[in-house]
Specification:
The complex is a heterodimer of chains A (293) and B (172).
Chain A (H helix, E strand, L loop, with lengths): L6 E3 L4 H11 L3 E4 L5 H6 L7 E4 L9 E4 L2 E5 L4 H6 L1 H6 L1 H7 L5 H4 L4 H7 L5 H9 L2 E6 L2 E6 L4 E3 L2 E2 L6 E8 L5 E8 L9 E9 L5 E9 L6 E2 L1 H7 L9 H8 L13 H25 L4
Parallel strand pairs in A: 1-3, 2-3
Antiparallel strand pairs in A: 4-5, 5-10, 6-7, 6-10, 8-9, 11-12, 12-13, 13-14
Chain B lengths: L2 E8 L2 E8 L4 H8 L18 E4 L2 E4 L12 E3 L13 H8 L9 H14 L5 H7 L11 H12 L1 H13 L4
Parallel strand pairs in B: 1-5
Antiparallel strand pairs in B: 1-2, 3-4, 3-5
Helix pairs in contact in B: 2-5
Classes of the chains: A alpha+beta (293), B alpha+beta (172).
The structure holds FE2/S2 (inorganic) cluster (2 copies).
One FE2/S2 (inorganic) cluster (FES) binds next to loops of chain B.
Chain lengths: 293, 172
């Protein structure tokens, strides 16, 4: 179908964009990469009165690292995330997850801020943010704030953003030496929404003990969901003594999967436990190969 | 509904038009510019039939608004063959390997592969098929398309093209 009628503006500064959004009122929406919003327009699931295009706003794209934090600007394209060396070093799960995000043609447009702001429970980036303990930097006419990721995703397509507030960056804390990350998902075809997906990060200390664990599911609950029981079981354990199958079973206990045409909830749980076990084994093998116990 | 004056270059030709905000790029190309080589399949970002190259990158023309290409450089399937009508290596490979039947999906496959060959000096079969994951074909069962990809990966022209691209590439 064709999109319904709307007004369109393409501001070049953030302040101007915020002003247009607030002037546009309730039905004004920001347009980032458009790879989800434009299909929603075509299907008439969204009927904004005004689109405020962020693609010409300066200063919203780019990656930087300082003071123990990686800052990924909201309009950084998925294509750029795949190839960025700072992301590869400090938040490799973000690049790893991008392999699963859409296709070449959509990654050329799609952005991290768009994905985080949309809060699709099946998408990869929100779970990466949750697993790594990111903060979402948001800006409104009232100023800039940083929202803890645990408080950001409220439900399917629902976030803690106020009306007229936009995501300006996602901030990832450094996990430090000895960290390994892995992202895995099961989907019907490459680029499809995940039936089950998991982002996993483990940090091991020099003695081979797991000092920090972050596991977050996508496609397994109305929001990205941390596997807190599995994280607790891993933290403080010796990496060499981890029973990956056992942790995998524990990890799905924190999920709330659903039945749909693609898969049943029980299928998602079964496959989820396997995905978690496989991811953990991969991380633990890599960590012992690295010379860390 | 707002209307906007845009100026863009399509296949090297300057185009200036007034467009409604809600007009998608694919409908702009087909309806306003008469470039019906770009096909609209699903019109919501699933099939890849509408793939065109915007500022050097393959994108879905149904997921961009015409107003967004103001100032951009666009290439469509009409601009791929040489001026004398001789086919681009991608078109030639698809033709020789029977990589199309009805042809509806073909412009999308062509533009995705053209972009891939320009992005990577010498893409492997795996890299090209990965790039094609977002293009759906209902007819061929993909075997002819995959043979075309293999031909492109091994063709002697691949070497010539690689040298061409290396020469033209700015250091970065
Ligand atoms: S028509 Fe654009 S992806 Fe199908
Ligand atoms: S040739 Fe008919 S859809 Fe591909």
């Amino acid at each position: 179908m064709k999109p319904p009628a709307f007004d369109y503006v393409a501001p070049t500064s953030i302040d101007e964009a915020l002003e247009q959004l607030s002037r546009g009122g309730e039905d004004a929406r920001p347009l980032a990469g458009g790879q989800s919003l434009v299909p929603m327009l075509a299907l008439r699931l969204a009927r904004p009165s005004l689109l405020v295009d962020l693609n010409r706003v300066t200063g919203l794209a780019g990656v930087s690292h300082a003071a123990g934090e990686l800052r990924v600007g909201a309009m950084t394209r998925q294509r750029a995330i795949l190839a960025d060396s700072l992301i590869g070093r400090h938040a490799p799960a973000l690049a790893d997850a991008t392999r699963f995000v859409g296709h070449e043609q959509t990654r050329n447009r799609g952005t991290i801020g768009g994905s985080i702001g949309l809060a699709d429970p099946q998408s990869e980036y929100p779970a990466v943010a949750l697993a790594l303990g990111a903060r979402i930097e948001a800006r409104s006419p009232a100023g800039t704030r940083r929202i803890q990721v645990e408080k950001f995703f409220l439900g399917p397509y629902s976030t803690a953003l106020d009306r007229g507030e936009i995501v300006t960056a996602v901030i990832f804390p450094d996990w430090g030496e000895g960290t390994l990350m892995h992202v895995d998902e099961v989907a019907r075809r490459p680029g499809d929404f995940a039936l089950v997906g998991l982002v996993a990060a483990l940090r091991c200390d020099a003695a081979g003990k797991i000092s920090r664990a972050g596991l977050a599911w996508f496609g397994m609950a109305p929001t990205p969901r941390r596997a807190t029981r599995a994280e607790a079981a891993l933290t403080g354990a010796l990496a060499s003594g981890v029973d990956a199958e056992e942790i995998g079973r524990l990890a799905v206990e924190d999920t709330e999967p659903w039945d749909d045409v693609h898969a049943s909830a029980s299928y998602r749980r079964t496959v989820g436990a396997r995905v978690a076990a496989r991811s953990l084994r991969r991380i633990l093998d890599a960590s012992s190969n690295r010379g860390r116990p | 509904m707002s209307e906007h004056r845009i100026e863009t270059h399509i296949n090297g030709q300057r185009i200036e038009k007034s467009v409604d905000a809600r007009l998608t790029l694919v409908d702009f190309l087909r309806g306003e510019c008469g470039l019906t080589g770009t096909h609209a399949g699903c019109e919501h970002g699933v099939c890849g039939a509408c793939t065109v190259i915007v500022d050097g990158l393959a994108v879905r023309a149904c997921l961009m608004l015409a107003v967004q290409v103001d100032g951009a450089e666009i290439r469509t399937v009409e601009g791929v063959a040489a001026a004398d009508g001789s086919l681009h290596p991608v078109q030639q490979a698809l033709r020789e390997e029977h990589g199309l039947q009805c042809g509806y999906c073909t412009p999308g496959f062509v533009m995705t592969l053209v972009a891939e060959l320009e992005k990577l000096p010498r893409p492997s079969v795996a890299e090209m098929t990965a790039a094609l994951s977002g293009n759906i074909c209902r007819c061929t069962g993909y075997q002819g398309i995959l043979r075309a990809v293999e031909r492109l990966a091994s063709a002697p022209e691949a070497e010539a093209r690689r040298i061409d691209i290396e020469r033209s590439e700015e250091p970065r």
